[in-house]
Write a structure and sequence with these properties.
The complex is a heterodimer of chains A (110) and B (122). In chain A, 0% of the residues lie in helices and 45% in strands. Chain A contains no helices and nine strands. Chain A is globular and about 40 Å long. The N and C termini of chain A lie far apart (28 Å). The relative contact order of chain A is 0.33. Chain B is an all-beta fold. In chain B, strands 2, 4, 5, 6, 9, 10 and 11 form a seven-stranded mixed beta sheet that branches. In chain B, strands 1-3-8-7 form a four-stranded antiparallel beta sheet, with no helix packed on it. Chain B is globular, with a radius of gyration of 13 Å. The chains are: A mainly beta (110), B mainly beta (122). The A-B interface holds A 2, 32-33, 35, 37, 44-47, 50-51, 56, 88, 90, 92, 96-104 and B 35, 37, 44-47, 49, 59, 61-62, 95, 97, 100-101, 105-115.
Chain lengths: 110, 122
């Protein structure tokens, strides 16, 4: 059971927009930055969004992040087949004194 | 470019130890903390702990306290993660990752190593 809660899967058609939610608590998302990682099949995770809503250099601006209270969201617009991957949210947890991850969300582009 | 290259796959028997290495290049090794994350087949990411390559200070997830040791050799810009008393449930891909922003695990992980498969089997 992951500390951060994500939907196990989402799906949407190409060129549409999808959002992935990440729910936590005051000890993690509510008091610390949220980062998002993309993991393509068979590959290592890759940083997608950092500090809640910042885009690393080289990452498409089709990806965006937001946070409100103890929840965060990742939005992907203009879906492409290459976006099919697992997406993970992560944050520091003050009570556990460590990093906690969401269980991951598998995105399928129909 | 900034890169982390990990050692190759390992097969270990239950009760043994494994030591995975993570060689950094393209930046000053002692300026950024290194974290370790593992992933069992078909499962999610699990954080194991962090290490400051400059001071050698570490912080471990409670689950791994007493079984994991994170060390480094600054002369060759390499971090190590050793896990002891292995059991079948430790079979997973182990990743190292550099932390940017705030240190320990509070920042963001970028880049990640390519991963090292550790298989625990009798």
């Amino acid at each position: 059971q992951s500390v951060l809660t994500q939907p196990p899967s989402v799906s949407e058609a190409p060129r549409q927009r999808v959002t992935i939610s990440c729910s936590g608590s005051s000890s993690n998302i509510g008091n610390n930055a949220v980062n998002w990682y993309q993991q393509l099949p068979g590959k290592a995770p890759k940083l997608l969004i950092y500090y809640d809503d910042l885009l690393p250099s080289g990452v498409s601006d089709r990806f965006s992040g937001s946070k409100s209270g103890t929840s965060a969201s990742l939005a992907i617009s203009g879906l492409q087949s290459e976006d099919e991957a697992d997406y993970y949210c992560a944050a520091w947890d003050d009570r556990l004194n460590g990093v906690v991850f969401g269980g991951g969300t598998k995105l399928t582009v129909l | 470019q900034v890169q982390l290259v990990q050692s190759g796959a390992e097969v270990k028997k239950p009760g043994a130890s494994v030591k995975v290495s993570c060689k950094a290049s393209g930046y000053t090794f002692t300026s950024y903390d290194i974290n370790w994350v593992r992933q069992a087949t078909g499962q999610g990411l699990e954080w194991m702990g962090w290490m400051n390559p400059n001071s050698g200070n570490t912080g471990y997830a409670q689950k791994f306290q007493g079984r994991v040791t994170m060390t480094r050799n600054t002369s060759i810009s390499t971090a190590y993660m050793e896990l002891s008393s292995l059991r079948s449930e430790d079979t997973a891909v182990y990743y190292c990752a550099r932390v940017s922003g705030i240190g320990s695990g509070r920042g963001w992980f970028d880049p990640w190593g390519q991963g090292t498969l550790v298989t625990v089997s009798s």
